[in-house]
Amino acid sequence: MPVDKYTVLDKNMTKEELSNLERAPLYFVLDNIRSAFNVGSAFRTADAGSIAQICICGISAYPPNRKLAKTALGATDSVPWKYYDTTTEAIKDLKSQGINICIVELTSRSENFWEHSFSKPTALVFGHEVTGVSEEALELADHFVHIPMHGKKSTLNVATSVGVVMFEVLRQWNGPK
User: Does the model's pTM come out above 0.85?
Assistant: First the structure.
């Protein structure tokens, strides 16, 4: 008996076809991510989850950028994105659209991301690889979540965190398939 294959999107979709894709009401806000490779990885992850938009802020690399493109592997063409001078500008724009702001950062107010019920729509804010999410952005948050760590280190690479949290949000919204 043959095994059914899952449907793979046509990799040669036109810009119009891409713009008509159903997207999850999930946004990434990249708060001063210093590595273009991490930004590129966020694009690849966003493409995998068909998220609504990436908000690229501050010193974060944005297209066109050679290092970003090397990791994104074309996802900059399939994922909507917008550049903002500051993260607070991005967050205020999202809030004005009724989008919940959820900071992914270990704080005194954060809860385990597995225990948080993510509402639709939500923007996940990820911070600088060394200093984390800016104080200004923290002040604008609706919710705080963290990824529990069981080893010596207290953080994950930001690109890994993007994928881990995104897939938990999508699991909650879509249930097991």
Answer: yes
